[in-house]
Amino acid sequence: MKVLNILNILNIIEICFGFTGLNGYVKPKIKTKQIATIGPVCSDYKSLSNLHTNGVNIFRINLSHESQISLVEKVDILNYIRSISTYELEILLDLQGPKHRIGQVKENTIIKQGNNLLLDKCSIEGDDNRVYLGHENIYKNINVGDKILIDDGLVELNVTENGKEFILTEIIKGGKLKSNKGVNLPNCKLNNICLTNKDLNDIRLLNTLNIDYVALSFVESKNDIINLKNVLNENIKVIGKIERLLAVENIDEICDECDGIMIARGDLGVEIGIEKVPLIQKKCIKIGREKNKEVIVATQMMESMITNPIPTRAEVSDIANAILDGATGVMLSGETSIGKYGLECIKIQRKVIEEIENSDNYFNLEKE
Fold first, then answer.
1. Which fold has domain 28-98+193-367?
2. How far apart are CA 51 and CA 43, in angstroms?
3. Which residues are paired to 33 by β-bridges?
4. Catalytic site residues?
5. Alpha-carbon distance 355 to 156, whole Å?
6. Helical (H) or strand (E) element with 156
């Protein structure tokens, strides 16, 4: 309790001396929100405070990788930082949704193009010959000739034979096979239930927490948003994630039901083809802004900075163009959750935002 009192006193002193944030940082007034994903390298009080001090408006917690105990701990830390901060801090919890994943794989497993890979229901550790895939609805709906994409499309398989307990595939695009990576099936209609048992269990907990947003994965229609609202506290805002073709086709009705959308370009690119993502991004931003919704652009905005201290020029342009098109928020995922240069990402991203928002070309619906 003494530590908290000292921190509060220090914060009051900063305000008295004319500062407007933690550690004396004077935060410039910008409109585009910076969203950072919490992960192993930035989950303690000091790291989160530094990120917030340097520009993060919204912290995202991905419930695909979070136990309920650690979730409560992180939300408590963020709410404490919020209580002593003099500028905006919001919390976004991202539901896992009906995400399909492979099981554990032996370390350094490499699969080669032209070889076969068996997917089955045996939960033992996989290798370059077979791997666990424990989703019954895939086995029921997959057909010979369908594509199976793993790890955001880095691994591509073609189904050559299937049965109730197995799926035999030919490796079209090989490489390193990693544990628990996501699976996409762009040609296969699975009739997923949008709110899984895990999601409902997580919602029961998050309804008791002081948070601002919940993001819903793999939205297909307005009904998915309505179903979430039916079990969610009414004071929590809903962000619909656009990562499937059906979501793009139903973007108007989805925007009408939710408080904002997130253009999740990772799964979206895998599902519909990466060449289609830029125009879809522009379309979704335009519709979202016309309906006065939050519009967040996400995935690989500064991907190179997971391991490098500066971004590529293309990444800087990506941030700038999203803001010029009217995005209200730009999100970092692995860059802050597991990257070596998360704080540097935030600082550079903020410079780009400031530069664009101070230019004559800045998209601003409020001026129209």
1. TIM Barrel (3.20.20)
2. 11
3. 329
4. 60, 101, 241, 299
5. 40
6. strand 155-162
Q: Name the pTM for this structure.
A: 0.83
Residue of higher predicted confidence among 10 and 32: 32
Alpha helices in 291-341 (DSSP H): 313-325, 334-337
Per-residue pLDDT tens over the stretch 155-180: 999 999 999 999 999 999 999 999 98
Cβ–Cβ < 8 Å for 297, 349: no
Q: Which of 19, 24, 18, 36 has the alpha carbon at shortest distance from 348?
A: 36
* 319 pLDDT higher than 50: yes
**Torsion sign across C-alpha atoms 270, 275, 280, 286:** positive
If you average pLDDT over residues 241-265, what whole number do you get? 95
Query: 100-184 maps to which CATH number?
Result: 2.40.33.10
* Token output for 159: 């189904």
CATH 3.20.20.60 domain position(s) in the chain: 28-98+193-367
Report which of 218, 170, 210, 214 is spatially closest to residue 192, judged by C-alpha positions.
218
